[in-house]
Amino acid sequence: MKIAIIAAMHEECDFFRQSFDQAIHSTHLNMQISLATWHDHTVGLIESGIGKVNATLAAQHALSVLKADFIINTGSAGGIKPGAQIGDFVIADRVCHHDLDISPIGFERGELPNLPIYYQAETVLSDQLMGLCQDMGFTAHHGHIATADTFVYRQDQLDNIEKHFDSVVACEMEAAAVAQVCHLHNKPFVMIRNLSDIAGEHAPVNFQQYIVEAGQKSSALVLALLSGLDS
Fold it and tell me: What is the pLDDT of residue 87?
C-alpha cells in the first residue's frame, strides 16, 4: 500500500526520519517530505507546518501527487476530556472544525454547504490502534477531535467547544482539514494524537515541555500499526 503520514511539526516527524532507512527527502512549498519503505509499504511522511491551510496542502499533495491509499494524521493535541492526562493517546472516531461558524445564514456550527459537521475516521484501523495502545501499555481515549486555527487554553474557548460539539476528547489545529480533503477524495483516514497538554491556562507551558515526547510516542504507535498492516 501507499500510505501518507502527515504531522505538523519537526518534533512530531523526527522519530519517523530516524526510523526510515534510505529515505528520499525533498521539499514542496513549505513542506518537508520523506519517502521510504516500511514493511513493504511505500510511506510518504509530510511535515506540513501548523494550521489548517498547511494541513490541507499536505493532504492534497498526499492524495494527488503521492497517490496515497489512505492518510494517517498524527502528532500532539490538548486534552479536553475529564480525567485525560498528558501522555495519553486520543484515537479519533470523528473530527470537526470548532472555529467554523456560518450559522447566521442557516447552517449548524461547524458545517459548510454540502459537507458534514463531523468527518468519520476509518473504523477498522481506529479499532486496531486502540488495541495496539492496550498492547503497548498506553492509555488511550476514543472520541471526537476538534480542530481550529487557534491554540486552546482559555476557559471561554473550552466552554464554546462544549456548547456546540459533543464528546470532544481533544483539540488541535490540523485534523479536520485533513479529514475534509480525504472526504472529498473518498479516501480513508485515521487521526492519532498524543496529549502534550491539557487545555487550560498551563497548556502553553506544558506543550513546550512535552512536545518532543508526544511526537516520539505518536511515531512509535504509527510505526507499530504499519508493521502489522496487510498489503
Answer: 92
Q: How far apart are CA 81 and CA 167, in angstroms?
A: 8
Dump pLDDT digits (tens) for 78-134: 999 888 999 999 999 999 999 999 999 999 999 999 999 999 999 999 999 999 999
Nearest to 194 by CA among 84, 96, 98: 84
Cell 509499504 maps to which residue? 41
The residue from 11, 12, 93, 99 that is catalytic is: 12
Selected catalytic residue, list 127, 149, 197, 230: 197
What's the predicted TM-score (pTM) here? 0.94
End-to-end CA distance of the chain: 6
Q: What tens digit of pLDDT does each residue of 17-29 get? A: 999 988 999 999 9
Degrees, nearest 5: CA angle 160-165-168:
100
Residue 60 Cα distances to 24, 54, 128, 131, 180, angstroms: 20, 10, 25, 29, 10
Active site residue 111: no
Judge: domain 2-225, CATH 3.40.50.1580: yes
Determine the Cα–Cα distance for residues 111 and 62; give it in Å rounded to an integer.
25
d(CA 140, CA 138): 6
Annotation says 166 is catalytic:
no
The three cell numbers locating residue 38? 516500511
